[in-house]
Amino acid sequence: MLKYNKYIMTLLMVLIMPALVSGCEAKPSEDSNLTEDKTTATTTEATTEATTEVTTEAATEATTEATTEATIEATTEASVQKDTDLSKLQNTILDNKESVGIAYIGYVGYEADEEEIINFVKDSQYADKYDFLCGAPLVNVGGAELYAVVIADTKYSVSVYRAEITDNGEYSVNTDNTLYNYNGNGIDYFLLRCNESEIHSNVSLSFKKGNDSFSVFPMLSGMDGQLVDGNYYDFSIYSDYGGSGESEDKNVAIAREILLESQEVQYYISMGMSVQYTGQIDEIEGRS
Description:
The protein is of the alpha+beta class. 42% of the residues lie in helices and 20% in strands. The radius of gyration is 43 Å and the shape is globular.
């Protein structure tokens, strides 16, 4: 009997062990909805991320394209306007049978640096009518007067030299030292700062095309405050006063006549000095 009980206990232990082992295994979820929810959530998150990335990239590309197009349009429009203003002036110069145009911009003084000179141009009437001059290269010969030079016939070459006046009252040009060269390529205009003296110019502009050549010594006339006549078109702006109907050059002429009546002024003129218009205007007893 004891022998049989031993066999029965062994059998029971064998039967219990598989049951215990099978009880340790993870049972798959019987809730099919839970599995579907997890799958759907994962898919939705992936789709949302992908959609967001695509939308963001598309928006960025669209914004970049729009910004680039706007910048190009603005730059192109400014360039076209600049070219139009320059072309119109060049055609006007040629229509007046000249190859070059020169304008007196104003009196900048002896101490102004390049930045101050450019700002002077930007604040002048020339910035509105000839805005391309605001970006023109500056040729600094030294002096207090500022001029603008525009080449209309681009077949001409231009060289800028320093000039001095001799005892005989003639110009002596230092052609060994070229301060600026223009050979028909690149920018057809430049700013010129010159004239340390009010009596004569200190710069020579030498123009040459084939066998044709001429020189210009830009300066203001002591008679009327305007540019001295030469082989160029004067596109200086001589403004009119608000409601007076009198032009600026007429007022300058009147002021000069009054000054010339002064014995002190006459004395300095006899010493070789001259009366020059600086571009600054002050009203005295209602007159400019």
